[in-house]
Design brief:
alpha+beta, 18% strand, single chain
Amino acid sequence: MPPCPFPKSLANYATMKPLFSFLTLVALFGSSTLSAHEAAKEMADAAKVWLQALSAEQKAQATYKLTAEERENWHFIPKPFEGEEMRIGLTLKDMEPQQRHLAYALLSTGLSHRGYLTSTQIMSLEHVLWEMEQDAKRDTEMYYFTVFGEPGAKAWGWKMEGHHLSLNFTIADGKVTSVTPSFFASNPGKIPKGQRKGLQVLAREENVARRLVQSLNDKQRAKAIVEEKAPRDILTAAESTVESLGDAGIAQSALNEEQQQNLQQLIRVYVKRTRDKVARDELAKIEEAGLDKIIFAWAGGTEKGDPHYYRVQGPTFLLEYANTQNDANHVHAVWRDFDGDFGRDVLKEHYQKHHEDKKAE
């Protein structure tokens, strides 16, 4: 069993579904509104310090308007390939050492300890690929930081992106309102040889889901396993907007209590990559939309080493995972929000309110 995400004093209560749901735990940990504001302030402060350390030329590379179309142009491949557009932003490679430290400080304001550790391990895998392939496009410093709008303004955002990482944050009215798309990947999925042999960066994403699918009885498996062969990759790719992938799969309501807890643990694996104070709000949104409406679907084999794919889908969100490439040793895993990617829903409301306030003046 993976370690319980709650303090030991709450561990037993966390498994008591009738009394302790996600929202109850949010209440136990304190005010989510205050936490979200604290997170937003820390992000703004870190972004300001980083930008102040840049030269005028670097700052021009690193900053865009919040309304820039480039903000929603995201991807997880190594760029640029021949014929591909360059990523926007300032790379770690183009920063001085002291600027790099401040960029990492900004990154840490958006992620939990585990999320930060995972992201830096993913970046380090570029060196593993370079050793395996001797390919110049494999570079641990080709990760771009970009700020959209003015940090601390009524609405602004920032992103960090490169091969196998895309982290997008939107802040409005002093609160972190969106942390998606959130893409983490790993190649190799498990390092086969060398000094770091055996390292599996996204082990929880695989192991928790496999434990769930292997726990299903024959009737449940007939619903949950939607295809015998896994698709080559996540179905939503790097689309700027996503919608429901349909109702194929097994609903949480058709699972027993232990399986339901396992499914909720899988959701937390993705959501808790973000800093705890923001993750609480995201988990509360998921529960409010209806835990009983969440669907789990699997494709491919269920044993270790088999090419496989799964998704977890609720009324408002989608988690997708694929491990089929490179002999099922190359993982892609993404968290999307149907209406809220890049903070679209909140920013729309924010701009409408701002426009109305201007008219009233």
